[in-house]
Amino acid sequence: MAQTHTVTIPHFVTEASVELTHLTAAYAMYGTPHIQPDGRSNILLVEHALTGDHQVDQWWGPEIVGPEGVFRTDQYCVLSINTLGGCMGTTGPGSIAPDGQAYGSRFPALTIRDLVHFEAAVLDELGIREVAAVIGGSMGGAKALEWTLLYPQRVRAALVLAVSARASAWQIGIQKAQMTAITRDPHYLNGDYYHTEHTPQQGLAAARKIAHLTYRGELEMDERFGTDAQTGENPLGPTLADSGRFAVESYLDHQASKLVERFDAGSYMILTEALNRHDIGRGRGGLNKALASSTVPTFICGVDTDILYPYHQQEHLARNLGNLIGMAKITSPCGHDAFLTETRQLVQIMHRFITRIST
Amino acid sequence: MAQTHTVTIPHFVTEASVELTHLTAAYAMYGTPHIQPDGRSNILLVEHALTGDHQVDQWWGPEIVGPEGVFRTDQYCVLSINTLGGCMGTTGPGSIAPDGQAYGSRFPALTIRDLVHFEAAVLDELGIREVAAVIGGSMGGAKALEWTLLYPQRVRAALVLAVSARASAWQIGIQKAQMTAITRDPHYLNGDYYHTEHTPQQGLAAARKIAHLTYRGELEMDERFGTDAQTGENPLGPTLADSGRFAVESYLDHQASKLVERFDAGSYMILTEALNRHDIGRGRGGLNKALASSTVPTFICGVDTDILYPYHQQEHLARNLGNLIGMAKITSPCGHDAFLTETRQLVQIMHRFITRIST
């Protein structure tokens, strides 16, 4: 784990014109940044996923980020900024506003573009004009794509994994279902629960279970659990109330508990909504025109069994991007999460990417 | 629409040994039943899906059931029985128990086998020993499969659409998420809400939206709605509370409202749980042994874009069934619901089936 640093952003205005002041950004660095006189740097900006954080080595591991990783930290400097709207050190809805109270429902709805503009402000504060590459999967991939269109002069290349050019109707539907699970929790209080004794943890748990089912492939899950009963429980009881759990329910309960312990429901709402609002084409003449206008060398990667961001969405990106430098498909029973779990394939793909942009 | 008839089943015991008495079964017939002296009949037993009903012509239409349908009602008699546990005339959790109160939480958890044993009791009451075929999709397909194993002497053939040999872990997970949406509704009262002024309609609506996203293909949904705003609303407002809906949200709200008007949350719980408990292999030496033991000529059909019952599950059925007479794949952007919506393909598949079993 790397040390968490912070930097203050004095002023920020969202895409929907909400002004925030005195924001904090948390970030971590792996390796030493080198910035040449012309501004070129050895920095790889790695974007984390929705409930991830800036501790990249904790989720991508040393095969990817480390002295012997594919992103060699004796050569490159991996920088990761905790997302605006989150709850891991950067300002989010649970942070204290200038009036001394938590933002709660006053915290603005954010778009992926907002998250990227905020990161650009962080780079400004750090004196970084340009990065060698921006790299990310899922929400991190959406950010990487927006980087290439918002700041093409600041990004020399991009590796975009397991994401699309915009939210699909299905994604919006399933993500709104998760948000409904949270808003229907009586402890949510329209987002203003930070001063109370309770948090909407049951709602967040219900949301995470739905999300997890979109992250994991049904094949992998079925091979592990099938219709097995949870040990010591009978899921086939005489009434619903008398019935225990299937093993897969226990697994999902465990996944949900883990998230509830480490993540804030308000941040989950804001970041899920940012994904609903992801749309490369907005204000740029539509999706394909926007993609065609991209000048940044971009490498696209998807997962064959992803139901959240199906592979045809990455094919769409690849067909329309203005400067495609490569494409790869991860083959996995794991679904969307393969961009985190299939290390051997990821290392190969990242090696192709890093070789291509180094020469 | 056909006339609804009812018949009384005096006594029924579930797989988990709960006894029910004085049950009502609602059913409809299209065409005239002919029963030969040896018991052979011209009856096609059509099984409806979870929130469907016995009015088959209302959901499969006249191209399928009618005088000029592929199931010609001047030749065959289409019989459909409303499912046990439902709310459309057959006994379910909202029905009045012998003590004069609604069953509510006392209503037993049911399995697909229970639903089939109940239908066999209905056929007994109607003096029908054998049907020419049993036909169904989704929950109806699960019932059709169980018919071939529980009562092989009473079913001359089966057409099984868009279902699997057992629930998958993913299905159980997403179906339990729907059940959680209902149980977390404060009006659910552990299932004992029938005597109150309220019903858990918000919970049922939330459940249906999740379900609908597993029924419809993401391609079809995305082509219709994409990231469009609902007319007159701004989904990109400055805060979450200030934001209107995307068009897909309005569509899902509408789908949910339609269901809430016509369906009972308690029945939704019981029937969803019956699908969780669907397992052809239980007590039969496992899935493949159970399927291999099947003697009833069975035709399998799936949908290429179904994420609820992916096509590999129908391939599994086809590979292992003891008496497979055919297989078909519906190609559609509509996902699971294609077994209801792709009439042209369905008619062709059903024609192959009916021809094969008539000769």
Radius of gyration of chain A: 20 Å
**Count of DSSP-assigned helices of chain A:** 12
Uncertain segments of chain A of ≥5 residues (pLDDT<50)?
none
**Strand order in the sheet with the most strands of chain A:** 1-2-6-3-7-8-9-10
Level-1 CATH class name of the largest domain in chain A: Alpha Beta
Active site (chains A, B): 138 (nucleophile), 306, 336
InterPro entries (chains A, B): AB_hydrolase_1 (IPR000073), AB_hydrolase_fold (IPR029058), HAT_MetX-like (IPR008220)
Domain AB hydrolase-1 (chains A, B): 43-342
GO molecular function, one term (chains A, B): homoserine O-acetyltransferase activity
Structure description:
The structure is a homodimer of 359-residue chains. With 359 residues, chain A is an alpha/beta fold. Chain A folds into two domains: 5-168 and 279-358, Rossmann fold (3-Layer(aba) Sandwich), CATH 3.40.50; 172-272, Orthogonal Bundle (Rna Polymerase Sigma Factor, Chain: A), CATH 1.10.1740.110. Helices cover 37% and strands 16% of the residues of chain A. Chain A has twelve helices and ten strands. In chain A, the strands form two sheets. In chain A, strands 1-2-6-3-7-8-9-10 form an eight-stranded mixed β-sheet, sandwiched between helices. The first copy, chain A, has a two-stranded parallel sheet with strand order 4-5. The longest helix of chain A is centred in the C-terminal third of the chain and has 16 residues, at 247-262. The first copy, chain A, is globular. The two termini of chain A are 30 Å apart.
